[in-house]
Structure formats: C-alpha cells, structure tokens
Amino acid sequence: MDSVGTHGSFRLRNVLIASNMVHNLLSIRHFTTDNSCSVEFDSSGLTVKDLVSRRQLLRCESTGPLYTLRLPTSAASPSTSSLSVAFTATTSTTWHRRLGHPGRDILAQLNRSADVPCTRTPDEHLCHACQLGRHVRLPFSTSSSHADHIFDLVHCDLWTSPILSISCYKYYLVVTFLLRSKSETFSTISHFFVWVSTQFSLTIKAVQCDNGREFDNNASRSFFLSHGVQLHMSCPYTSPPERQG
To answer: What range(s) does the GAG-pre-integrase domain occupy (predicted)?
Structure first.
C-alpha cells in the first residue's frame, strides 16, 4: 500500500483490515522499518524524518489525546484517498448506536471537538430503539368487580421451573400444582373443579388465564362450556401479573 508524503512516498506492508475498528491504527515500529525513517514526537505533534539525511518528510499536528498521521490530500494516492473516505464516512446514525443512543446535541458537540468525526445522512430519521425506550405503559385502572364467594373466579397461570424437582416436576400451575409436563394442565384443572365442588359445595364460575395453548384449546373450552364456566383471557402483550391476579 503506497501513500505519498510531502517529499516522497511511504509504504505500509502487511496491512490488516478490522471492519469494526473506529480508527485506523499505525504501528510506528513497522512504519519506520518499512520506510527507513524515524518518528519524533513532541507536545504539538509528530515529525517523520529520513533515517540517513534527517530531512523532514512529514509534519503532523495533533490536537487530541492521540498522535494523528495525516497525509496531504493533494499528494495522496488513490489507495490513501479510499482509506480516508472509509474513515470519514461513518454516519451520525452509526455513532448514535455505538455510543449508547445519545441525543443529537451530544453528537454535535463530539463532532465539533473532532473526537467523533461523523457525517449527517440525508435520510436521517428518528431512532426506533430510542422511541421504544421512551414508551410508557399506563397503569391498569382499579377493578370495580369483586367476587361474592370464594371460587367465583379462579386465577391460574402456568410457569416453568429452571430446575427439576426430586420427583422430576418442571412446571407448576398457579394455584400451585406441580406438573411434569404442560399436557397435564387440562386434567389438573378438571380435577380441581371436582375437588372444589366436593370439598366446599361451591361452583367455579369463571377462570382468568393468559392466552397459553394449555388453557385455550378445544378440550378446555368444551369443559368450561359444559360446566357453564366463563373463560377470561388476558390482553395480549400485557404483563401477566396485572391480569392474572
């Protein structure tokens, strides 16, 4: 890779491409070895000199925390120009995502300080992730309906345990019933109906649950319908505890 300096050209061998790198990094040792030159650093910048004649080949001023090697654009070769385009073509949208979605005023301030060089895209639009992050869910209103007797309304849900029990139970049905598999949900609910009727002489009038297929299926709906039980399904994409009780 050739790049023209002030009084000649510099050669970079064995260049590695890292697509995720923010800046192009230069190994001073390889640079001086490949070009038979020396690099002197001071508080203002760096100077590249011929190793034999000590003639100054390039002077670069640095304003940030790093020493920056800038080649004159008038003398840059096509390969160097392409590198420059690749470096400066980072859009403000890309920087917005890299830096954790800061506001436009923060990006503008960083751009002015030359720490984050970026370009504005013509079709720049609102960040979708930022819109989702600023969403606010309204609280559920206080319910005005109350059960008159126990078991008028039964709240139930199916949860998964991360660890198997000693008896190999993995799921549990709230009101708590241990299940080895989700297929046991219907039989457990039907047995619970019989138990309530026998032990308390009461009838379950309604069942509140989520939209899981363990509750919303032909067998369950037929069972609830035959017993005159209302099936209340929670609204999709809402927090289950708010609706499951």
So the answer is: 66-135
> Beta strand pairing status for 206-209 and 230-233?
parallel
pTM above 0.70, yes or no: no
Going by the DSSP 8-state scheme, the letter that residue 91 receives in this structure is B
Tokens of 52: 């034999």
Structural contact between residues 174 and 159, judged by C-beta atoms closer than 8 angstroms? yes
Distances (CA, A) of 141 to 28, 70, 144, 145, 243: 66, 63, 9, 12, 11
3-state SS of 110-155 is HHHCCCCCCECCCCCCCCHHHHHHCCCCCCCCCCCCCCCCCCCEEE
Write the CA distances from 77 to 7, 74, 99, integer angstroms: 14, 9, 33
Mean pLDDT of the chain: 78
Per DSSP, 6 falls in state: S
Q: What is the pLDDT of residues 111-126, one digit of tens each?
A: 777 666 666 655 566 7
Cα–Cα distance list, 210 to 11, 193, 236, 245 (Å): 67, 19, 8, 11
